[in-house]
Fold this protein.
Amino acid sequence: YSTFPQNPRWKKEDVTYRILNYTPDMLQADVDEAIAKAFQLWSSVTPLRFNRLYSGDADIMISFASGFHGDFYSFDGPGGTLAHAYPPSRGIGGDAHFDEDENWTKFTTYSGYNLFLVAAHELGHSLGLGHSNVFGALMYPIYMAKDTRNYRLHQDDINGIQALYGPPRESPAFPTKAFLPQETTEMPPMEEPTQMSPREEPTEMAPTKRPEDCDPHLTFDAITTLRGEILFFKGSYVWRKSPYFSQIEHDTISTFWPSLAAGFDAAYEIDKKDRVIFFKDNQYWAVSGYRIEPGFPKPIQNLGFPRTVKKIDAAVHDQNTKKTYIFVGNKYWSFDENTQSMERGYPRKIAADFQGIGHTVDAAFQKNGHFYFFHGSNQYEVDIKNKKLVRKMKSNSWFDC
Amino acid sequence: LPVAPETENEDMHFAQKYLENFYDFKEDKSSLFKSTNLAHMADKIREMQAFFGLEVTGELNRKTMDMMKQPRCGIPDVRS
């Protein structure tokens, strides 16, 4: 942990706070609760008591603001800086400011920032703590989405705040020692199931062990390019072929997108938009890098599929025509990314248009002027312009086997 | 994940702003030598890499950029 220069701290045990305004992202009652819970974290391990004021000057003034808001540090729009707070002193000292351009949420989701977590961090500054370089500590400067049920301060945070204020006067209701060092625990499930976290669904397709790269029977659920790399998905596993490193990298889906369920059905990249679409069952998600775009998942019927289509097999985007081919059974559909609508005349039989592909498609991607269609442990290289089969390979030919 | 290709050119500027905001980096505008500022910036990158437990190289590599682009608190990690 760290403290500010000269260790500023409140010289009293009764500290007041006032919420000056509210974010429209949340119910006011939820904001009140998040702030109160954040204060309670600190009061539970110190002799401090926090009393809310509804008018006049409070020691800690809490507000939401965008861009320049009258202090030394302007906010920067969505992402980047989420909030800041000043160490104890008169005037602006102790005040906590939250960037209104963020999407503030009550729960831990990947479409917004949990106000309780951010407020708890900022109030640490309001009480005199600087940033900690201990990963998992609340005062670590990076926002880390985590379960906030029964949230406990990290031991490093407790050591820091007690160095300034000492331990609570009476025996606390629960031990002041953190239960578990958070850096050694896996991220727990999401606090509340939301539309974006279908993680609790069983993933039948997820193998318990990652298959060997060079297993001749290796099959894939979905494949996509992403910023020049190729990602191969199977169950919860990802094989990552990158021009930036020579070896195939092995990861899990949760490494990149912790809130997405394993077992994608299909994926494709629209590189000009820096966007990847993932399909699972009758829903789809859009991501940009690590970020899941807000408003997802959406039902695949939004793309123009009839209700009879419950899931899709594969998808691939043609960068030249801006059409995305989506494969369902022995047919495929063409989705126009420019007009965001399904093209007329579809679905059509795969075999009718892609000569030599007489079966369903498990996964597909585009690279260097070719489509690569996967079926079982085989892979079919297809010329994009004339849709003709060029050659057949094993599915793991990209792994230098 | 790699940074988006179209944003790659902006990384240097982004990193400079990040180091100014959080690591007390100050560009020496009076210096005639670009290398002086680059060396100073490399020192600050090392400081930032050490803080976050990254490999300390002084180079603006992918992991360092990824860390810089994480959403975070606006209070500096170090003070002058």
Notes: The two ends of chain B are 33 Å apart (CA to CA). The beta strands of chain B are 72-73.
